[in-house]
Structures are given as C-alpha cells and as structure tokens.
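INPUT
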Amino acid sequence: MALQCVETLISEHRTVEGVLAELEALIDDFLANAEVPDAAKQAFGSIGDFLAKDLVLHIRKEDYGLFPALERFLPLEQGPITVMLHEHAEITQAVAASAPEWTRLSRTAPPVGWRQGGSATTDAA
Ligand SMILES: [Fe+2]
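OUTPUT
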C-alpha cells in the first residue's frame, strides 16, 4: 500500500512536469505570435485549473501523508522535509494569488505591451 502511494506521488510529479512543459510552450508561442488562438486561451484555463486543484491536492498529500511518515526517519527541524514544506507553502500561496490571472488569460489576450520589458504596461482586459 505504501509503495503504491509513493508510486502515485511520483506519477503525479511526471504529470506536473508535463503541464509545466505545456505552459513553457504556450509562453514561447506568445513570444513568437501576436495573435492568441482560442486553443491557447483554453489551455491557460486548463493549466490554471490544474494548478489550483491537482497540484494543491498533490501538495496536501505530501504535506499530510508522506512527510509525517518520513519524519520518523528524517529530522523535522532541518533538512529536506522542512525545505519542501516551505516550498509547498510558497507554491500554494503563488497558485492562490495567480488564480485571477489564469482566469483572465483564459478569456482574453495578454495585456497590451506585456512583451515590453517582460511585463505588462497596460491592461487591455
Ligand atoms: Fe511532490
């Protein structure tokens, strides 16, 4: 049972890597093309949903399932568990903070001037 749970977590990591690769490709497309196809908008919405639901659920599985089991063998005060808990908190906060942007990206083109200096200068939404 425990081995199956770990295999599930590892499989979820591969899924996250795939989604991040998809996001990277979408960003590359945005940099290369002025028009944002509807499929790309839909993909942004799907990625935002994935991050808010699947990634956060994965993090909870590790924080409340895996890490407590590992604490029997690894010190909690320092070391990889502490680092991963901190990273998970940062990721969870970033996903929550970015939720409105994923929704906006799924409905509209990027803000006017978003390529200039690597950030938006005017919001067209
Ligand atoms: Fe993980």
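end of record. Confidence is low (pLDDT under 50) at residues 116-125.
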